[in-house]
Amino acid sequence: MAAAVALAVCGSVGSALAAAPRPAAEDLNTIHPDPAVRQGVLANGLRYLILRNATPPGAVSLRLAIDAGAYDETDDQLGAAHFVEHLAFSGGDNGHLEGPERAFAQAGVSFGRDLNAETGLFSTVYRLDLTKADPAVLAQAFGWLRTVADGTRFTPAAVDRERGIVLAEREAELSPASIAQQERQAFMGPGLRVTRPVIGTPASLAALDPGKLQAFYRTWYRPDNAVVVAVGDADPEQLLALVQKTFGGWTAAGPPPVRPAPGKLDLTRGEQALSRADIHMASQIGACSLRPGAAPGADDVARLRERLLSDLWIRLVDKRLGELTRNGHPPYLKAAVGRETDLREAEVTCLNVMLLDERWRPALEAAQGELSRFRAHGPSQDDLDEAIDNMRAKLRGARDQGATRDTSDLAGRMTARALKHDVVTTPNEDFWAFDAAVETITPDDVRKAFARDWSGAGPFLIVEAPQPPPATELTAAWDAGAKAAPPPAAPAETRKAWAYEDFGKAGRIVSRAAQTGPDFVRIRYANGVVLNFKKTDFAKDDVQVRVRVGAGRQEIPDADFFAANFGAGLLAAGGLGRHDFGDLQRLFANTGWEAKLAVGTDAFVLHGQTNDWSLRSELQVLAAFLSDPGFRPEVDARIPTAVETVYRQYRAQPAMALNFALMDALAPGSPATLPPQARTAALRMADFQRLLKPALTEAPIEVTIVGDIGEGTASEFVGETLGALPPRKDTPRTQASTWFMRFPDQPPALIRATHEGPADKAMVGLVWPLYVATPERRREEITLGLLAKVFDDDLRHRVRQELAQTYSPHVGTSLPDHADQGLLMAAVEASPQSIEAMRAETAAIAERLAKGQITEEELEAARKPLQAEYAARMTRNAWWVGVLDGSARTPEGLDEMRVEPGLLASVTLAEVREAAARWLGKPPIAVVVLPEAAARPASAATAAR
């Protein structure tokens, strides 16, 4: 359960399925609803939306949305909307200690993944995703939603218990980033209701009693202020009958409530600056303008046109800002603009710039110059046409994939649109509406929209850095930039042709073998390339690609392991020999491209996601990275700042501090530890080229393609690209010995560490060493997974539900084959004052489990969600491409897929008890992470007019 935050700047184009014909001119402004969505209103005012959707088969997703959030609280109710959500989720005193997660576990529902709730500024949404919705489970699900709606009891005991959980959630969400966000909001929007912290403050939460919470609940939880959404593979008539039966008797208490008066935006506020000293955040500078929020209007083509005007200038300015980073002397690390328009009281437009080497003046000057250029000249017609084409391509992709939209995603989208009283459309209708909206847009329209969006109060300038300049210097620099003559219009862009269309004569297929269990095809080309191919219909037009080369971690010198992983993340940024990253972005703006590299235990894996009509270009991109990767030195200038930012964030995160402290204690100086920052900052693209290029360009290739595409097409495209590359020798690539983590015979019983983050956050982890996993021990691995889930359920029930000391404790295992020694770990984040108690409680649960105190009911409550998740994974292309990837050389993944469902179903209670006695009966390694006792202040601020 989560509380959303306000004033987060973003911009997006909505996408959503069969457009109706437009018989008359007056219809050209109308956006038509999806005729398949059954919508209506019960006699008590409850709105409902029902849609049949069969992806995945058998699943049904339910949503109950209340049209009220933190914005609607009175001053003495701060935090009440979110607090009420917590209590309503579990039924208050009706079922608090058990909670719906235990009730639904037997139906395969996992808490957090399938069952959750979220409170925002303007709404509260309860979510339940059922993988197999038989009548009994559906009735149970609707019954829970009705309890949420009007069956919650606010007893003192329940409120006091839940208060601890809410406070723990607040602590879990507290971070340097959230603290900075709160300070920015207070600076830019004093007096606006949208700056209220959704989760409340410690003082406001302490003051919330059953009476105040019940008052909020009765005021806003009423049928005429709620929406029920039901989407999935079930008869719509059946779902409608359940809606009517479940909610028809829900009655409202009294007349509809009056919304609180909105805060007033002070439009007389001119330029102001905030200077924040912060040693943990990325050094950055920003400029924002606030203007009054637009009044709600009809969801039609005219309104869409206004939104698209803003989206277009954002896209065009972002493009220019990005181009400035693609040389050897960039003025900043990264820059972008964005807008937030869903805040009712205000629309926020911001420029955000991440500094390079703490140099704020050139960063501000360059970014402000691009804003001035666009204000003066706007876009060219060619640039505008390209931006529109790029946006249209994404909508076309959504339209083409409309027949297999995911049920849970659909339910979420329908709920969000219903809360805004927007039209619930089809992807086809979205495509039509977009074309209708952009038909008359001109470059001058976009330039005027830019000026409109930057009008209002401000600009509000904010700089954050370890040693930021005074606010007065910031305003002086901005004023100087504002008075300077705007730069000339950007020169016309030179359009480059794609240089990697022809890899030579297409590769010849020398063998084709149909495989069974699972069903797929393995094809070999004359140059040695192996293709694993599986056609699916899970997601229309979706195609997943993986290419495997080399020996991965086992061919990297131990001392370079961290560098290889770091460099893998920069492969795409390094471009190609004949194209830089910017070229790739422009060339494939309409189709998209992906080249994500990972260093696996026994191979390097390139991943791409595409569709049937752009698979050829995606394979061309991957073949280019496998034959001519760029590792361009232009990226070098940004590496030290990127490293500095990452290390700052690491130091402020208790979980990172825990992991590194554990590795430092168990294997000091090993590849698993974090290298000194100076060594990482000294890395350059030439280092990554040395480590990664040999495998990319010389090692044999195995490619896997899974998705909605024919075998003939896929094999032809592979033949033209990877199959056309020169043959590669299959020579040994592993080094003499690769370091893998092994626990010492006498590991330390207790490890203590500190973090530099918020002072009221601490963490404890208990670690039980396991064994080095092999396929032969798969049953034991599955058994340990079940044990970890039982442990996880018990730990959450005890320390969250009963003791209310933490928000999201977690237990899990790590057991990679033929690699690091496995472990089972339980982790709890809590306040420093309660962390030792959490350590003791976690150890006590482990001791109870080790004594065999596990019931059949607990085992099945753990087993059923795991089985449901496994069944769901088998309907996803991304899972299948992972299973088939590398199966020609190492078939263990196939073996695991074949046996895992049976093992998961057949592991007995006796086996789980035996595993608990064997592994949890040993003393764990405890890692306790506390905030630094004498840490420097997280932030300090100065302001100037």
UniProtKB/TrEMBL annotation:
Stretches assigned to the Peptidase M16 C-terminal domain: 209-269, 701-865
GO MF assignments: metal ion binding; metallopeptidase activity
Residues making up the signal peptide according to the UniProt record: 1-18
Family per record: Belongs to the peptidase M16 family.
Gene Ontology terms describing biological process: proteolysis
Keyword set, alphabetical order: Hydrolase, Metalloprotease, Protease, Signal, Zinc
Keyword Acyltransferase: no
Database matches in InterPro entries: Metalloenz_LuxS/M16 (IPR011249), Pept_M16_N (IPR011765), Peptidase_M16 (IPR050626), Peptidase_M16_C (IPR007863)
Lineage of the organism: Bacteria, Pseudomonadati, Pseudomonadota, Alphaproteobacteria, Caulobacterales
Protein name (database record): Insulinase family protein
PANTHER family: NARDILYSIN, STROMAL PROCESSING PEPTIDASE, CHLOROPLASTIC
Domain Peptidase M16 N-terminal positions: 50-172
UniProt keyword Transcription present: no
